[in-house]
Queue: 4 jobs
Job 1
Amino acid sequence: MKPNFKRPPLSLAEVEPQTPRTLVERAYLGLRHDVICGKLAPGERLRVEHLKDQYEVGAGTLREALSLLVSDALVTSEGQRGFRVAPISLTDLEDLTNTRVMLETEALRQSIRRGDAQWEAALVQSYERLSQTEIDLAAAGSELWERRNKLFHEALIAGFDSDWSKYLLSILHRHAERYRNIAWRLTAAHSSGRDVHREHEDIFRAAIARQDARAALALEAHIRLTHEVMRQQASPTELTQPPDVSGHN
Ligand SMILES: [Zn+2]
């Protein structure tokens, strides 16, 4: 499968939520948001007849949007039997984590070696914005933190000119975000003795100092910690239960 770069822009700064240009895109972004935040639960059957009213589109448009989510691996297609939200599991999270470490640390090393002054300036800006959110996370809210966290990670690897890496990493990021949302109460990313701001600071300082090996190690530790915390705290059954969306936000 070749990435379709005509899709909703992947590297476009998501400082503000994207504005959809077509009905398919609007339905796609709406569904994607609801899958990622856990409103549509892992394993849940997606009934076109029901969802088309909810997302205010026709059945054909909704099916097209669901097909796009299939290629993002957020939805599975069951042929004649329709669509389901992709399930989650600790095994999947482990695979996701390992793949992300592999791709993102190499992209970071390359980016640090090649990044110019413009890359550096954009990185500083995204780090400062993320830091503002991390000073008072409760006030900023997890959605804003997620957006700025994503932008910071994109800025880190922006110096590496590889559409494939950026495309694949953007998909992996969304899956990681879904795990964080679904298991927010488990990971309690910001209350389990973990200092996420410090982790970001370590990566940032090494990147600006052009220490690619040190930056890659800090990034790997950062990516692996979420998985570790979840692995230690979640029993396998907890990760297959529908999420408690009522407690989110
Ligand atoms: Zn991060």
Note: The first strand starts at residue 45 and ends at 46.
Job 2
Amino acid sequence: MEHTSVWAIHDPILNKVSFDYVKKNMSNYTTHVNIMTEKYGSDQIEHAGQRYEELTIGEFITQKDPRKYVKWVDEDHGLKTSLKWVKSRLIRILGRPRGKTNWSFWLGFKGSFTSLHYDEEVTNLLYVIHGLKRITLVSPKDASILPKSSEHCSDDYIETKGACWFDIDIFNAAHVPRKTILVRSGECIQIPSGYAHAAENLEDTIAVSLTSDA
Ligand SMILES: O=C(O)CCC(=O)C(=O)O
């Protein structure tokens, strides 16, 4: 398994983005909330043709439901306006990755998760602003024999365009070799390129990821 680093950043400016901050500034903003199943975490739901719900951020935070998970991506209107500064701040702290850079914002309560997948992006820096995540990593070799479930998958992850989801409940598949890493508030992890990964929110967690195609 490739060496994986987690490093402490503790940026006081990003630290402002708490659940209270989001509630105060974005309560009336309506967003898609992924409804998770036991097996599939956040994004895979859409691949599996399953449900998402439209909720305001205020409703989402008030419900505190671990089966619901919010992921906003760069293009999202709400991010572009209310949280635009977060992307610039992230780039200032982490450095601008080469290539086309994107970012996502993750808002999930304790128990929410993203199941096993790999991304097409080469660089993936995930920074936990508040909360605690457990990241599960599976090497490309070990992942290559696992069942895959989306049209974006090919045998070689390099050819992948779009996220490739695995048809496996990795958290209950003890036979699959993996490495798990805790990422705490103020810490950042670089997901090794080409590694399948899954994330569990062990506490109510807010995170941001900065990705790029180079
Ligand atoms: O934090 C999460 O739920 C998922 C993170 C992830 O999979 C990613 O950044 O690619």
Note: Helices lie at 19-26, 44-47, 57-63, 77-82, 84-94, 140-143.
Job 3
Amino acid sequence: MIILVGGEKGGSGKSCLAQNIAVFLTAECGASIIMVDCDPQRTTSDWIQARNNNPELASINCVQLYGKIRNDLLSLEQHYDFVIVDCGGQDNLALRATMSVASHVLMPLRPKRRDLKTVSHMDDIVATCMMINPKMRASFVITQCPSLPNQANRIFEAKDVCRTYDINVLDAITYSRNIYDDSEESGLSVIEIEPTGKAAAEMRGIACEMLEAQNATEIRNRLATTKINKMRGDYGSGRSQEKLYAV
Ligand SMILES: Nc1ncnc2c1ncn2[C@@H]1O[C@H](COP(=O)(O)OP(=O)(O)OP(=O)(O)O)[C@@H](O)[C@H]1O
Ligand SMILES: [Mg+2]
């Protein structure tokens, strides 16, 4: 399964989300993951390098790919449960190539006017890519929300703006929390720093809602079923009628 975390707005939390979702799927769902960093700033590659220098953390693979990456992604998908692509903050070839094969696209936006102004163009890109990849499920997610109650309206308004387009908007959001910034420095995720914390719950909520699962156990079970079906391959999909009657 190919998951793209992308969008046109710089700093909206794409890399942060991609990294935390990768840890959630690896550590809590037992999935095999590869991250693909398409951003010349190398944010995710640097985070992976810091992470893989720490032997206590579950290591995650990462490759850098640019440009027409459709075929590379399809071949990586054969070897991993999830290919998580961090596309940086522009509309470029890698973003569109990924959208041509991704099953899920997550587009973070802060509840701010400049972020919301990019929604219309993202909607155009998604609509174009869905002509060749109609099964792609694209969602906006509102990030770095203010936690002050008198600013809650900003979050509702941001969701309302997104809902005027034909793209799903996740119920789950992230609030602005220092733990996101603090965790990145040493290649960690918020789930590892504070597993029972609010940020960890936000990341689980976003990943599960995106994958339309109740919790990590459901994702784990789905992966197990997929593996069994893959192993059976061409050898048939179940017991033959004779065997069933014989028992
Ligand atoms: N929910 C949050 N609360 C507080 N800080 C956050 C949150 N999410 C992300 N950040 C911080 O915002 C900064 C930008 O995040 P990130 O690098 O993930 O953005 P990006 O969309 O990948 O940016 P770019 O477009 O440059 O690739 C980072 O310092 C990150 O720690
Ligand atoms: Mg980034």
Note: The chain has one domain: 2-216.
Job 4
Amino acid sequence: MPDATQTTAILPDPAPGAEYDQDCARCARLASFLAEVRGRNPGYFCRPVPPFGPAGARLVVVGLAPGMHGANASGRPFTGDHAGILLYATLHAHGFATQAEGARRDDGLALLDCRVTNAVKCLPPDNKPSPAEVRACNGYLAADLARLPDGGAVLALGRIAHDAALRAFGQKPARFAFAHGARHALGRGRALFDSYHCSRYNTNTRRLTAAMFDAVIAAAARHLREAGADDGR
Ligand code: SF4
């Protein structure tokens, strides 16, 4: 398995404005790890995982990176592993998804005015992308978040996603402290909401409960209503 501490070779920036490239292999360590995982699991997606949900949605959820047997296997963010159970159930409870379950890519789930993506589009070893890999992938996130309408909301799942989202908006992460339940103004009525990641570890240890997660998504939905974007949700 590639070592996160080794020097990470990063190729030049992707084309400006590109939101996704299914053949991207800028991060040598991740490209090599994906090839290794693909060899062991030929049925797995094993590519950069594209965002899910309509472009230009008013709520964008930013996770960390695809999970080995979740998004990396299914090809859809938060699909097929534990983290997606709470995420999609809660999005559905607040009117952002057509159904509460999202365990399979062909399950018919559609997102409503909501888009789900990751700060890093490729599976990292041990779920730990290097800082250079997070930076390398930030152009894709920035292109996606550039479509966020005025008054929109971004929900960052964990500190790495929080920092990546801020960088994507051209902000310095050090100026905005990550804290579960925090809300940060981004200008033009847009706001960044922070939550602990809905990972199995965080929910099993009750660092994040369903009620805590529900409260953050409720706050983001309230923000959209108060920004004059109420569609009856
Ligand atoms: S993590 Fe992002 S930048 Fe790196 S290879 Fe994957 S898609 Fe490309």
Note: The chain has seven helices and five strands.
